[in-house]
Each structure stands twice: as structure tokens, then as C-alpha cells.
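2024-03-11 09:14:02 INFO queue: dequeued item Growth inhibitor PemK, len=145
2024-03-11 09:14:02 INFO validating residues
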Amino acid sequence: MSLPKPENGLVICYSYLWRHEALAGLTEGRKNRPAAILLCVQPDGSATPQVTVAPITHSPPADPTACLEIPSAVKAHLGLDGEKSWVVLNDLNVFNWPGFDLHPVPGNQGRFAYGLLPPGFYRRLIDRFLQLRQERKVRIHPRHD
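2024-03-11 09:14:37 INFO prediction written
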């Protein structure tokens, strides 16, 4: 099994730790889920990329302005189920690639990624994320071990 190269818009299988879980003292996510890499950077002097990921969930959002619904065509492109899903943009994890919480895609032990988001949808995610960040509504939880 080889790990994919991290890049903006890649949807990975990741053990996401929600902010409320971290505040409750948990250090591991409760389940593996698709998560979209919003930003992949190479910090100065580091050989390890740092990625910021946004979780994908079936749960209807408490704050609809803090997420984007994934169009059915995008879900099909990624091989995700047909249920409604959202990318949450105000509760993010950041970690050094590949970290300890990357997992194989269910049903495909040789793959750790579902695929790349289409550029237009990725751009919509980034635009919404930047707006939320400007409004100071984004919380990022570091997952560095």
C-alpha cells in the first residue's frame, strides 16, 4: 500500500477528531470518515507537509453557513454513497502528513484516498472557508503527535 501525495482537494479516509470531542478530553476520532484536504503546505525547513482537513458528514449542519453540501455528481465521482453530505468548514484538523489517523478507504485496503474534488467545488470550499476565517468562525485543532 502506498500513500497518496497530499494535495489540495484530495479526499482522504481519516479518523477525524471533532472540536467537541477534543474539548471533552478525547485524543482520537470516534470513526473514520472522508475528509477534504483544504490546504497542504510545506513549512520552512521541514521535509514533512502539513495538511488542514475538513470533515465530511451525513449529519445536517447546525449552522448551514459553516458548510457546503456536496453535489451528488461530486459524491459519485469520489465513490461516496448517495446520501446527502456536507463539508464542514468551521471545525478543522491540522497534522503532519501522513500522521497516525490516515486509514484505508473502506472496502479498498490498497487506497487511502477517495479522489480529488473537482476544481470548481474546491474553489467554492476555499472561498467559503476564507469568509468564515475572516469572520473568526473557524476553529483548527492540531493533531501533531
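2024-03-11 09:14:37 INFO annotate: The helical segments are 19-23, 72-78, 119-134.
2024-03-11 09:14:38 INFO item closed
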